[in-house]
Amino acid sequence: MTAKDAGAAAGKHGGLLHRVAHGVKWSFLSRLVVRSSGFVSSLVFARMLSPDHFGLIAFSLTVLSFTDLLGQFGFKQYIIQKSGRTEALLGTAWVIEIAKGLLSCLVLILFAGPISSIFSSPDAAAVLRLMALVPVLKSLQNIRSLYFIRNIEMRNFVLIESTPPLVLFAIGAPLAIVLPSVWTVAGAYLLAHGVQLVVSYLLCGAPPRLRFSLRRARMMLSFGISVMLGGVTIYPGLYGGVWLAAFLLGGHEVGLYSLVFSLCHIAVSELAKPINGVLFPAYARLRDDREAVRRFAVMAYEVVLAVILPLTVGVGLVAGDFVPLALGEKWLPALSLFPLMAAAAAMRCLSTAGAGLFPGLGHPEAALKTGLYTSGGFILAVSLLYVRAGENFVLEDIVLALLVANLAQYLAWAYYACRLLGMAYWRLLAPVLRVGFCIVLMIAVFWGSYLLLPPGLWRLAGGILAGGIGYVGGLFVLRARGGGALFLLLREFRAILRPA
C-alpha cells in the first residue's frame, strides 16, 4: 500500500469513526432520556398493578417477542449490510413482514385461552387478544427506516424507536395512576405502537411498493436463516425463565421474576441494543480491513462495557432501599432475587457489549452457535436444579440457571470473536479487567456510604452518588496509566458537540 492509499484509508476510517460517534451519541443520549421515561412508566405500572397483573403484561410481551423472533428471517440485516441499490428488496421484505405480523396476531388470538389459564385474572385471555394487535402495528411501519441504520444516520431512526416509551410515559403512566387497571396498561401499549406507526411515515416519506419476489426472498433468506436461527436458539437461554415461572410456579411468580429481570437487564437491553445497532453497519464497512476492524472492535467493546456494566451492577446494589420506596411492600418478596439476577445480567453484559460484531462481519452463523451454547447451558442447569429440588423448585433456581446460561454465552462469544478477528483472548480480557477495576472501586465506595447513612431515601441517594464518584475515579486512575477506551469516546463527543 502506498502512502497515498494509506492516507486515504485513514481518512475513510476516521470519517467512519466520526459518523459512528455521531450515531452512538444520538442513540445513547436519546435512549438515556427515553429509557428514563420508560423506566418511570414501568415503575408506575408496577406500583399500581398487583404482581399477578404485572406478570400478565410482562408475559404478554414475552409471548409477543417470541412470535416476533420466529419471523425474524434476517431480511432487515441483509438489507442493512448490503451495498448498492436495495430498493427492490424492500418491497419483498415488507410483504413478508406484514404477513408475519398478521400470522403472529392470529396465533396469539387462538392460543390466548390456554395461555391465560396460568393467571388468576378473569380478563387474562381478553388482554392477550388485545395485545395481539401489537405485531400487526409493528409490521405496518415504514420499512424505509432501515436506510437510516445503513447510512449511520441515527437521528430519525432514534426518533421512531423512541416513540413507544415516550407515549407510555406521557399518556400511559398518568392513565394508570388515574385508572389502575391491566386494561389501561394494555391499551397504552397498543396506543404507543400506533403512534410509532404514524411517526415512521412522517419521517420516512412514501413507503416502497408491496412487491413480492420469490427469487429475492430466497437470496435474503440464504443470509438471514442463520440470523433467525441464532435468535431462536438463544431465546430459551435469555427468556426461558419467564416461561418456566409461568408454567411451574404461577402468575404471581411471573410478576416477581419479570420485574427483577427487567430492572437488572435495563442497561443491557435498552442501552447496548441501540449502540450495537450503530456499530453493526460500522463493522460491515470495515470488515475488509482486518487490522482496522480489530482495533475498532476492541475499543468499541470497552466503551459499551464501560457504559452498561456499572449500571447493571448498580441496580443490584440499590435494590434493598429502592424497591420498598418506589414500588411498595407488595414487591418485597422480589428482593431475594436481585443479587443473583444482577450477577447474571452482569455476565450477559460481557457478551452483549459485542453483539453487533458477528452479523457486521457477515458471520451470523457465529451468533447461531453462541445461541446454542447459551440455551444449552440454561436447559442443562434447569434440568439439574429441577431434579435436585423437585417440588421445592423456586425462582432462585431459575435465576441461577440464567447465570449459567449467560456464562456459557460469554465464553462462546469470546471464542468465536477471537477466531474471526484473529487475535489472542487477552485483548478481549483487558477491557473487562479495566472496567472491572472501576466497578470494584464503585462497590467499595458505595458500601462505605451505606454504612454511614441511615436507611431510606437519603441512603439510596447517597449510595448512588458515592458509587458514581467511585466509578468515575477509577476511570481517571486508568486514564493516568494510559488505559481506557472510554476517554477516546468522550474526546470524540467533545469534538462533535463543540460549536463550529
Describe the structure.
The chain has 500 residues and is mostly helical. It has helices at residues 3-48, 51-70, 75-81, 87-116, 124-131, 134-139, 146-150, 154-178, 182-204, 214-249, 251-264, 266-286, 290-326, 338-352, 357-360, 364-389, 395-421, 426-452, 457-480, 486-497. The chain folds into two domains: 22-212, no CATH class; 215-500, no CATH class. The chain has 20 helices and no strands. The model is unreliable at 1-14 and 492-500 (pLDDT under 50).
* CA-based gyration radius: 23 Å
Distance between the termini: 34 Å
Domain count: the total is: 2
Succession of helices and strands? HHHHHHHHHHHHHHHHHHHH
Query: By helix and strand content, what is the structural category?
Result: mainly alpha
Please write out the topology.
Elements: H1 3-48, H2 51-70, H3 75-81, H4 87-116, H5 124-131, H6 134-139, H7 146-150, H8 154-178, H9 182-204, H10 214-249, H11 251-264, H12 266-286, H13 290-326, H14 338-352, H15 357-360, H16 364-389, H17 395-421, H18 426-452, H19 457-480, H20 486-497
Helix pairs in contact: 1-8, 1-12, 1-20, 2-4, 2-5, 2-10, 2-11, 3-10, 4-5, 4-10, 8-9, 10-11, 10-16, 10-17, 12-13, 13-14, 13-18, 13-19, 14-17, 16-17, 18-19
